[in-house]
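By way of example, what follows is a protein record of this kind.
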Amino acid sequence: MREGHGEGEFCGGTRLYIRDHISDNGDVPLPTALQHWYSPDIVIIQPNGTRGGEAIAGQLNQVEIRVTNDCGIPANDALVDAFFCTPSTGFTPATTIPIGAGYLTIDGYSSAVIHIPWVPDPEHAGHACILARVSLSFPPDTYADGPIFDVRGDRHIAQRNISIVALMQAQQLIFPFTIVNNALEGSVLFVVAQEVRDRDELNGLRGSAGVRFARFGREPLQSFGMQLTKELVTIGEYRPGGKPGFGRTTQHLEVKLDPGGVQPAVLVVERSPYAEEGDLHAIEVRQYDRYEQLVGGLTILVEH
């Protein structure tokens, strides 16, 4: 529910949020129709200035986080911190690594940006999922529960789970990710992968991923599939023991995990014979709990 103010009225406080989606205005919970892992307010800046979702290991990158204050009182010295996770459908404290933190002042009815330096270890190179949150001590304007990353239900927390990978000349791409149970109880989780073909959703991805002039393929992917694995793998190195279920429609996985449990998996994408060089295809991986509630996800942009 929005803690806002009527049109034309002065809001005598602070109302801090980090957007989860380009359509997010800080209302909670985020509407179920909006993917909450598209935050346009979190960007990785490489040493050469390239902006996106990929970091260079062993070098000084910057994590840029934008915070909005939707009320009239300045938020002085709000604490902003960031965390890293390998590509995953969700976050728990056990699966994240702190990147750093800093203080940011956001004037009333405005936004401000902070840059948090980050030198990733070589084992953390490449595609990064980033979580950011903001907290103000006075007046109190902070997340509800520190150990829980409630992205959908807390406007102070946002995540960016968009990876762009190149298929290049290979006929098949292997993309590893993890399925995470971030609930406080064990649960059967359902993971669904589907190619994004809706024009409005693709336009939203352009804005969130920083690829505004990208060209998405006219024809859908030839095939793709998912498979559970025993351990994490490197992109392009995994060889399925048995061919995963492939198709041009929705693909499903089902897994039972304890609270905080993690299950490695891979997404396998096969090149489309109709793709042109530079075409992008977007595959969205959504995670649902046993109540069929959307609880996490990530999006992979495959570049031909």
Remarks:
- The mean pLDDT is 85.
